[in-house]
Design brief:
The chain is mostly helical. The chain folds into two domains: 85 residues; 282 residues, no CATH class. It is 67% helix and 0% strand. It has 15 helices and no strands. α6 packs across α15, α9 crosses α13 and α14 packs antiparallel against α15.
C-alpha cells in the first residue's frame, strides 16, 4: 500500500474510532423509530383499507412508512429527533381514529366493556418477526450511513465505555437468535439419552457453519485488501459472525447438560461471575490494555481478547433471551392474556432500568467492548420495549 492509501486508511479508522456515544435516552428514541414505523404502516393499512394491496403497492407503502423513517431519523432529523418522532406518533393516532370511525359507523356496539377483554386473539406473534426484520434493515442502513458525515459521530460504536446507537447491534442479534432458538420454543424436550444430546450439538454446529464461513471470509478479505479495521472492537482476527457462532454453540452445549428451565439462573450466575472477574481479578484491564499494559497484542489470545472474552457476557445475554423466548411462546388466546403479558413486560422494563442505573453508577459503566453486566442489562432493556407492540386494535 502506498503512502496515500495508508493515509486514507488511517483517516478512515480515526473517523470511526475513539467515540464515547450519546445518552441512553437518545439511543432509546432512535430505537423507538422502528417500532413507531411499523405501527404507522399497520395503522395506515387499516385506516385506508389497504390489506388487499398488490405486492408492489405494499412494497411502496413499506418503503414510505418503514424504510424512510429508519433512514431519516438518525441522519437528516438527528438534531430534531423528538419533533420527528412526535410527528410520526401524531400520524399513527390520526390513522387509528380513522379506522375506529370506519368500524363503528353504521353498526351497533359489538362488545360490552367486559367482553372486550375476552376477544379471541391470534396465536401468532408478529412482533417477533417485526423485530428481527427491522433489526436487519436498520443494521444495513446504519452500516452504510456510518461512513458519511450526515451520520452523527455520537451514534457510532463507542471505543470503551458509553452508549452509542450502533452498540446495540450485536446484543440485539444475540437476543433475536435466542428467543427463537429450539430451546426457547421447547423443541428439545426429549433429550434424555446421550445420543440425543450429541445429535442436538451436531445439528447446532452444522447450522452455525454459515456464520463461521462468513467470519473466516471476512477475515480473509479484510486482511488481503488491507481494509481499515476497528481492532479494539473484537480483536485482530475475531469478528461479529464468529461471536454469534461461538455463543450459539456454547449455549447449546451447556443447555444439553443443564435443563432449559435454568436459563435465567445461568444468565444471572454467568453475569455476576464475569463482572466479578472484570472488576476484581483484573480482567477488565487485561482486555483493555493487553498483557503488557500497553495495548500490544502477542499471540492469538492477546490479539483477540475483546472478542473471545466478550463471548462470556454474550452467552449470559443469550441465556436471558432463551428465558424470555420461553415466556413469549406461552399460549395466549384472549386479549386480557396479552394485556397481562404487556404489564409484565412494563414491570420488567422498570426493574431493568433501576438495575441498569445501579450497575452503571456503582459497579462499571456500560461497555459493549467488555460486554459487562451493565451492557447485558441494557440490551435486555432495549429488547423488551420492542415486544410491547401487539396489534390488538386489529381485533376491535
Amino acid at each position: 500500500m502506498g503512502e496515500t492509501g495508508y493515509l486514507y486508511k488511517k483517516l478512515h479508522e480515526d473517523f470511526i474510532d475513539g467515540h464515547n456515544g450519546t445518552t441512553m435516552s437518545e439511543v432509546s428514541t432512535i430505537a423507538a423509530v422502528s417500532v413507531i414505523a411499523v405501527l404507522l404502516r399497520d395503522s395506515v393499512m387499516i385506516a385506508l383499507s389497504l390489506q388487499t394491496l398488490q405486492v408492489r403497492s405494499k412494497f411502496f407503502l413499506d418503503f414510505v412508512c418503514i424504510i424512510l423513517p429508519l433512514i431519516l431519523g438518525p441522519t437528516m432529523f438527528s438534531e430534531h429527533l423528538f419533533i420527528f418522532v412526535t410527528s410520526l406518533v401524531c400520524l399513527i393516532i390520526l390513522s387509528i381514529f380513522m379506522s375506529l370511525a370506519k368500524k363503528t359507523e353504521g353498526r351497533n356496539e359489538k362488545y360490552t366493556r367486559s367482553g372486550v377483554f375476552d376477544i379471541d386473539m391470534s396465536e401468532k406473534r408478529p412482533f417477533i418477526n417485526y423485530f428481527r426484520a427491522i433489526l436487519n434493515v436498520q443494521t444495513a442502513v446504519v452500516i452504510l450511513a456510518v461512513d458519511f458525515t450526515i451520520f452523527p459521530r455520537r451514534y457510532v460504536k463507542t471505543e470503551t465505555y458509553g452508549t452509542g446507537s450502533m452498540d446495540v447491534g450485536v446484543g440485539c442479534f444475540i437476543i433475536g437468535n435466542a428467543i427463537v432458538s429450539p430451546e426457547a420454543r421447547g423443541k428439545y424436550k426429549d433429550r434424555r439419552f446421550f445420543s440425543d444430546k450429541v445429535l442436538i450439538i451436531e445439528n447446532m454446529i452444522k447450522s452455525s457453519i454459515p456464520l463461521i464461513v462468513l467470519g473466516l471470509l471476512r477475515v480473509l478479505f479484510v486482511k488481503s485488501a488491507d481494509y481499515q479495521e476497528h481492532v479494539s472492537e473484537y480483536g485482530v482476527h475475531w469478528n461479529f459472525f464468529l461471536t454469534l457462532a461461538a455463543v450459539k454453540i456454547i449455549s447449546t452445549v451447556i443447555l444439553c447438560i443443564l435443563p432449559v428451565t435454568t436459563s435465567s439462573i445461568l444468565s444471572v450466575v454467568i453475569t455476576v461471575l464475569y463482572q466479578y472477574a472484570l472488576c476484581r481479578c483484573g480482567l477488565s484491564q487485561y482486555i483493555l490494555n493487553g498483557s503488557d499494559g500497553q495495548g500490544t497484542r502477542y499471540g492469538i489470545l492477546d490479539a483477540n481478547r475483546e472478542g473471545l472474552f466478550s463471548c462470556i457476557g454474550y452467552t449470559a445475554l443469550y441465556f436471558a433471551g432463551v428465558q424470555l423466548g420461553q415466556y413469549l411462546f406461552i399460549k395466549r388466546t384472549k386479549l386480557h392474556e396479552w394485556l397481562k403479558f404487556l404489564s409484565s413486560l412494563v414491570a420488567m422494563c422498570m426493574l431493568s432500568l433501576c438495575l441498569l442505573w445501579f450497575l452503571s453508577n456503582a459497579v462499571e459503566p456500560v461497555s459493549r467492548r467488555l460486554c459487562n453486566a451493565a451492557y447485558i442489562v441494557w440490551m435486555e432493556l432495549k429488547y423488551w420495549p420492542n415486544q410491547i407492540y401487539q396489534p390488538a386494535f386489529y381485533q376491535l
